[in-house]
UniProtKB/TrEMBL annotation:
<dbReference type="GO" id="GO:0005525">
    <property type="term" value="F:GTP binding"/>
</dbReference>
<keyword id="KW-0630">Potassium</keyword>
<dbReference type="GO" id="GO:0002098">
    <property type="term" value="P:tRNA wobble uridine modification"/>
</dbReference>
<dbReference type="GO" id="GO:0030488">
    <property type="term" value="P:tRNA methylation"/>
</dbReference>
<dbReference type="InterPro" id="IPR018948">
    <property type="entry name" value="GTP-bd_TrmE_N"/>
</dbReference>
<keyword id="KW-0819">tRNA processing</keyword>
<dbReference type="InterPro" id="IPR006073">
    <property type="entry name" value="GTP-bd"/>
</dbReference>
<feature type="binding site">
    <location>
        <position position="23"/>
    </location>
    <ligand>
        <name>(6S)-5-formyl-5,6,7,8-tetrahydrofolate</name>
    </ligand>
</feature>
<keyword id="KW-0547">Nucleotide-binding</keyword>
<feature type="binding site">
    <location>
        <position position="232"/>
    </location>
    <ligand>
        <name>Mg(2+)</name>
    </ligand>
</feature>
<dbReference type="InterPro" id="IPR004520">
    <property type="entry name" value="GTPase_MnmE"/>
</dbReference>
<dbReference type="Pfam" id="PF12631">
    <property type="entry name" value="MnmE_helical"/>
</dbReference>
<keyword id="KW-0460">Magnesium</keyword>
<comment type="similarity">
    <text>Belongs to the TRAFAC class TrmE-Era-EngA-EngB-Septin-like GTPase superfamily. TrmE GTPase family.</text>
</comment>
<feature type="binding site">
    <location>
        <begin position="228"/>
        <end position="233"/>
    </location>
    <ligand>
        <name>GTP</name>
    </ligand>
</feature>
<dbReference type="GO" id="GO:0003924">
    <property type="term" value="F:GTPase activity"/>
</dbReference>
<feature type="binding site">
    <location>
        <begin position="329"/>
        <end position="332"/>
    </location>
    <ligand>
        <name>GTP</name>
    </ligand>
</feature>
Length: 444
């Protein structure tokens, strides 16, 4: 299959629907239009009503067609959009007719956007924004995706890269005139100042506590506690379904069980975990290890204590933070005398106190999400490159400060430019393109 294939896909959702949109991109479009549309090649950018036929002249459907000639189209190529009735028979007849044309094939996931990227219509962060806005479930995800697809990150990275290019030029002056007596002092001071500013900016961006990634992928809450505290009962109540097995036997839960909810306007993953205790049971011990890992990685931990038989050892967990929540459970039965200090008393089984706990969880999450304004990093891919870029800048600064060699500093700055360039897809991204675009749905 060559790059020049004309691609086609259903761009709208699953049938049946009132209307479907079938999209085509590539240089066979004028031929297809001539053969299959009663109207022939439509006037550019005008919705045209036409009958759409298969190769034997049988009518597929009647609908609208819009022709957008390249290069002023999404992909930069000639594109055609067909608006037909969104029934399964219409769609399969249309798609099979189109793909039976020579040089026309079904698009791969994200292939339209990949062509747009390759045509320079958008950079990689904007392309990711396109994928994200399609997936966006919360307003926060939508806002973040919109900012990204309209160039919010591009601007930031372009600014950094431009500054680095300026810094590189200044360093090269030092490299070019190594013997001039006054060159190092006078020239390196402003370079160091600029470099330090940029290092500060990038450190600030990296110090966002992962909020951009969390808005996109979800925040994490872990329910932890001793066996039988009622963790799985609480998870089921928060899920509104029997997601986890509940029994009266301590040590019921072994694997981590996760549910996904929207809370405080954010996607949140809530994990139920194995009760924490010393055990000789190999399976349970693995469950405890997993529980501890989940607890250590979560944004918030709910420490659950059975109020009728409190086991307080879990409260001295090394992962406990001041923002974490202590919940005493089984409020519907007799409470023991030695209750710990707690934030909420609930009955996970009967529901009492759970709404107040849910409100607290929601408020925590929404507070955390809004603690960073407009994060510059929304994916692990960005973070990895920024971390690498920062390391190069720090190495460059060291080389300049120690006077060990402006050539080394220049090389480090060049590497940093490459790392930042990789985020926007300007350089060295062949290896990540497949991963980025495979996340897309077909038709986008
Ligand atoms: N009376 C009362 N019983 C509860 C409450 N919550 C849970 N239980 C009971 O406590 C027992 C243990 O509940 P689970 O939810 O399985 O407890 P767990 O913390 O997940 O236990 P492990 O998976 O073993 O760690 C079950 O018999 C539940 O019905 C509650 O609020 N009140
Ligand atoms: Mg359990």
């Amino acid at each position: 299959m060559s790059e020049r294939d004309t691609i086609c896909a259903l761009a709208s959702g699953q049938p049946p629907a009132a209307i479907c949109i079938i999209r085509l991109s590539g240089d066979r479009i004028w031929k297809i239009a001539g053969a299959l549309l009663d109207c022939g090649l439509p006037e550019p950018r005008r919705a045209t009503l036409t009958r759409f036929r298969d190769e034997d002249g049988n009518m597929i459907d009647e609908g609208l067609v819009v022709f957008m000639p390249g290069p002023h189209s999404y992909t930069g190529e000639d594109t055609l959009e067909l608006y037909l009735h969104g029934g399964p028979a219409v769609i399969s007849h249309a798609i099979s007719t189109l793909t039976s044309e020579p040089g026309v094939r079904l698009a791969e996931p994200g292939e339209f956007t990949r062509r747009a990227f390759e045509a320079g219509k958008l950079d990689l962060t904007e392309a990711e924004g396109v994928a994200d806005i399609i997936e966006a479930e919360t307003d926060a995800q939508k806002a973040q995706a919109l900012r990204q697809l309209s160039g919010g990150l591009t601007e930031q990275y372009d600014r950094w890269r431009a500054e680095l290019t300026g810094i590189l030029a200044l360093i090269e002056v030092v490299v070019d005139f190594p013997d001039e007596d006054d060159a190092p002092e006078e020239t390196t001071a402003p370079v160091l100042r600029k470099l330090n500013n940029l290092i500060g900016d990038i450190e600030a961006a990296l110090g966002d506590r992962g909020i951009g990634e969390k808005i996109r992928d979800g925040f994490r809450i872990a329910i932890i506690g001793a066996p039988n505290a009622g963790k799985s009962t609480l998870l089921n109540r928060l899920a509104g379904r029997e997601a986890a097995i509940v029994t009266s036997r301590p040590g019921t839960t072994r694997d981590v069980i996760e549910i996904r909810r929207v809370m405080g306007g954010q996607v949140v993953w809530i994990s139920d975990t194995a009760g924490l205790r010393e055990t000789d049971d190999e399976i349970e011990a693995e469950g405890v290890r997993r529980a501890e890992r989940v607890a250590s990685e979560a944004d918030l931990r709910v420490f659950m204590v059975d109020g009728s038989a409190p086991d307080l050892s879990v409260l001295s967990s090394p992962y406990r933070l001041p923002t974490d929540i202590v919940v005493v459970n089984k409020a519907d039965i007799d409470m023991a005398a030695n209750l710990p200090a707690y934030d909420y008393k609930i009955s996970a089984k009967q529901g009492e106190g759970v709404p107040a706990l849910e409100t607290a969880l929601s408020e925590f999450i929404s507070g955390k999400a809004s603690s960073v304004e407009a994060p510059v990093i929304t994916r692990a891919r960005h973070r990895v490159r920024l971390v690498d870029g920062l390391a190069c800048l720090i190495a460059a600064r060291d080389a300049l400060e120690l006077g060990t060699g402006p050539e080394l500093a220049a090389e480090d700055v060049r590497m940093a430019i490459r790392h930042l360039g990789a985020v926007v897809g300007a350089v060295g991204v062949e290896d990540v393109l497949g991963a980025v675009f495979s996340e897309f749905c077909i038709g986008k």
